[in-house]
Amino acid sequence: MAEQAGDPLFKSHDPIFNRKELLHVGHVPDEDRIVGRDDEIESVAAEVGAITRGDPPNNVMIYGKTGTGKSLISRHVATRAQDAAHGNEIDCGVLYVDCSEANTETRATRQLALSLKDQTDYRENIPVRGVGTMEYYQHIWAILEEFFDAVIVILDEIDKLDNSNILMQLSRAREAQKTSAYIGVIGISNKVKYRETLDERIDSSFGHRELFFHPYDASQLREIMRNREDAFQPGVLEDGTIELCAALAAKKHGDARKAIEILKEAGELARRTGSETVAEDHIKQAQEVAEINRIEELTSGATVHAKLALYALASHIITGERETYKTREIYERYVDICELVATDPITENGLYRQLKEQAFLGVIESEKTGGGRSQGSYLLHRLVTDPKHIVKAVRRDASLEEVPPYERLAETGSGSAMRDRDVDLSSFS
Ligand SMILES: Nc1ncnc2c1ncn2[C@@H]1O[C@H](COP(=O)(O)OP(=O)(O)OP(=O)(O)O)[C@@H](O)[C@H]1O
Ligand SMILES: [Mg+2]
Q: What pLDDT, on a 0 to 100 scale, did the predictor assign at position 395?
């Protein structure tokens, strides 16, 4: 029997990747691989930094689109602050709660209490079920009092929490003499909408600063990817591939996570096709796949009507001569499509609201235009992505697999010609 190491079925080394883990979604880069966010790092540090000198910190809310480094930078600064505090003999803890999982006050406080217990020699038992929020708070205050001078609490995806009481509890704890430890909260959200409702949710006791993280530009994305070049074997990445990847990602979204994913996918593609190098073409193909996935993710929670509205807009753009269309034009085509897929259409106003939601998500852009004196103003909608990606993403919804292609509808100006389901789908798939 052949020795396993020598079995040609299993190559002894990966021809494309050297340290592929550097490109994994969950990978947390080392400090020296974080680039392009120096100002943001300093801004967060300025808010919580007082802790390192034994002074009270500010609370801070960080807003920004997905993949702009909010979670990464928050954890990075919190850990550095903790180290600096320790250097000054200040007992500082760091607590991280992902509120998309711990999405109730009970879950969030349980996680805080358990994680504090983990970091200390606290002797009391903390039950994982059967007790309520108040009991978890008791443990939190007790541990803080006994073991800490200060703590930084990161509440990531804070908009997923069903209420904001935890913010009040944490910010009032000292005043209410629950603990003498200083508590600095870093709240993170990629929903700008959350900001609008935050003031209604909380009272003035949660004083906080706000920071906004902007999408990365091409040169920052390039730097981020260059710093992970050693994920690949030497010489595998052809010249210009990282530049291309950065340019494409910056143009679409400025999302570092997606840019890294594209690079990884390009490597996978090269390997699958037996190529020894990663070329620009691999990047372009990977970008296409990523873009469809992104649109699918963005639209996955959308109603069937929103998807059909996007489809109607996409079909207008594919078959027409313009890039932008009025709500009314989209609605008319949407009604035609509804008929074809035997779905009852919603009202034009209802559809308008669905379009607004999509504009908020960043799938479309809507712009108000003056339509001349007699017409008043109206909205023009454009797709942020290639319409073909919308067609693909919409068809991935099982209930919409049968949505017909659209080129012939434009010719007839009516849905009736589209009843023939055998028309060629290939131009869109
Ligand atoms: N400045 C950076 N330097 C190096 N890598 C980065 C940087 N910013 C982001 N990344 C990489 O991109 C990934 C996404 O960043 P992060 O998770 O911080 O985004 P986010 O703003 O929290 O997004 P979301 O709103 O989706 O949670 C990180 O895991 C990290 O690998
Ligand atoms: Mg995040």
A: 84
Ligand 1 pocket list (CB less than 6 A): 27, 29, 33-37, 64, 66-72, 190, 224, 256-257, 260
pLDDT band at 412 (very low <50, low <70, confident <90, very high): very low
Going from the Cα of 100 to the center of ligand 1, the distance in angstroms, rounded, reads 16
Q: Where are the domains of the chain?
A: 37-213, 217-298, 301-419
**Residue 425, pLDDT above cutoff 60:** no
- Of all protein residues, whose CA lies closest to atom 13 belonging to ligand 1? 257
Question: Can you name the CATH fold of 301-419?
Answer: Arc Repressor Mutant, subunit A (1.10.10)
Which amino acid residue places its CA nearest to atom 12 of ligand 1? 257
Beta strands, E only, 243-358:
325-326
Which parts of 252-384 are beta strand (E)?
325-326, 364-370, 377-383
Q: Is the pLDDT of residue 64 over 80?
A: yes
Cα separation, 235 vs 305, whole angstroms: 48
Q: Are the beta carbons of 106 and 132 closer than 8 angstroms?
A: yes
Ion ligand 2 — residues with CB < 5 Å: 71
User: What is the chain's mean pLDDT, rounded?
Assistant: 88
The CATH-assigned architecture of domain 37-213 is 3-Layer(aba) Sandwich (3.40)
Neighbours of 176 (CB within 10 A): 11
How many other C-beta atoms are found inside a 10 Å radius of the C-beta of residue 224? 25
Beta strands across the sheet bearing 208-213: 92-98, 150-156, 182-189, 59-64, 208-213
Sign of CA dihedral 341, 343, 344, 345: negative
Give, in words, the CATH class of 217-298. Answer: mainly alpha
CA of 280 to the centre of ligand 2 (A): 29
How far is ligand 1, taken at its centre, from the CA of residue 181, in Å? Answer: 30
pLDDT tens string 21-37? 999 987 888 888 898 89
**What's the rounded Cα separation, in Å, for the pair 155 and 197?**
17
- Residue whose CA is at the smallest distance from ligand 1 atom 4: 34
Q: Compute the distance from residue 198 Cα to the ligand 2 centre, in Å.
A: 19
227 Cα nearest atom in ligand 1: 4
Residue nearest to atom 26 of ligand 1 (CA): 66
Instruction: Report CA dihedral (161, 167, 170, 173) to the nearest 10 degrees.
Output: -130
Asked whether 306 and 354 are in contact (CB, 8 A), the reply is yes
Residue 403, exposed/middle/buried by CB under 10 A (0-12, 13-18, 19+)? buried
pLDDT band (50, 70, 90) for residue 49: very high
Query: Which residue carries 């996978």 as its tokens?
Result: 268
